[in-house]
Input
Amino acid sequence: MVRYRFSHFVVSPRRRLLARDGREVPLIPRYFDLLVLLIERRHEAVHRRDIFDRVWTDVIVSDSALSQAVRTIRRTLGDDSREPRFIRTVSRHGYRFVFPDVVEEADDTDIALDAVPPPVPAAGEASADPYEPLLARLTRIGNGPAGEDDRREAAELLHALGTTEALKRLGTRPGHAAARALLRDTRWDLPGPVQVPVLGAPAPLRVARELMTLRLRRAAGMAARRWAGASIGGGAAGVAAGSIGGLALAVLPESDAPMGIVAVLAVIGGTCAALGGAGVGAGLAIAEAIARSRREIALVCGAALGGAIVGTAVQWLGRWSLASLVGLSVQTGGSLEGLVIGAGAGAGYAAATRRVNGGMAAPRGRQRLLAAALTAVLCGLGGLALTISGRPLVGGTVHAIARAAQGAPVTLAPLGRLIGEPDFGPVTQGIIGFGEAAVFGLGLAFGLMRRPADF
Output
């Protein structure tokens, strides 16, 4: 293992330490990883895609997160983006570490460290009262990304000066709600614990609204792709489950179902699962975009709410369609089923990605398989609980409709007799309910956690 020495700095990847003139300089882990990557590959410009692949390997973040990371590293090193000494932006490509005299040395001795000095304001901000110029920048209404970047930088500098004093001086001046929201959002990109409370602060509802709007705006594109992927994954799982069920009905000797039932059940299963995946996926994506603290609770509630909304719409549409088209009155489910299975999906996804911070979870390899399996199991248990309580899912509803329509050949009774029950009994219902929900959860999770090819 080697460490790197340049200018007044020493970077030790093994000790995960950045020091300046013998004093440790705090840097959050992902930003430290980015600095090490740029130093290791200092003879080339590192593409944004390679940075995301190395530093944010388990999450998906926006380009603005990378820009903020580089800005923070530059400020830590005392660099200037207009005349860079250390990190240069390579237009439409990425970044390059450009300091020429980097010394590699063996990292086999300790680095003598002095006490950490108090934070020093950035160049140009030192004045009789360094807070006021930064508070003016923070509360200024800017246009476009440049204006938000300027306000975000002011928030980070205020944290460096002192968060408590900055909040006290911010008070209730015009623009304080948006400023407080930005201070809370930037606290996650600081190395130490920083508290920016919302409850108990002036206008807490406005601050919460500004915070949600800020995070959704920054993650809107990613959130949209997330729920669309969840819908596609859930739909594919529904097609597979429906096809398997239809094929089983068509080939069983005691069944009168025609071979065309395979396509019919595939379409029904795919449509219902795609709609459910859209609702649950949208709830998960929005919750993950806006929640940094209490992430697990937000994911469960968001997924449950999304599932319930779509389930309610499908429930009423199904009832009206049956009554209007064929004159059947069947108590189809939807709202409660969407709520329970959505909550199961949210709980499984949250538990499997509980260590994720700073973006939307996108685990790879074995971790992705484990996350999908856990989501599938919890969704399946939710489906089983619904079935036991007399709330059938898609298969049970199809059976109920067939029983209500006199002479319909497509009932699930042959599946019950295959298992050993005289009809579509509780054991068969439980197995099918668990299987339907588990397959849905599996497809939903794989679609939700898919890492875009252009990332």
Summary: The chain has a mean pLDDT of 86. Residues 222-448 form one domain. The chain has 14 helices and ten strands.
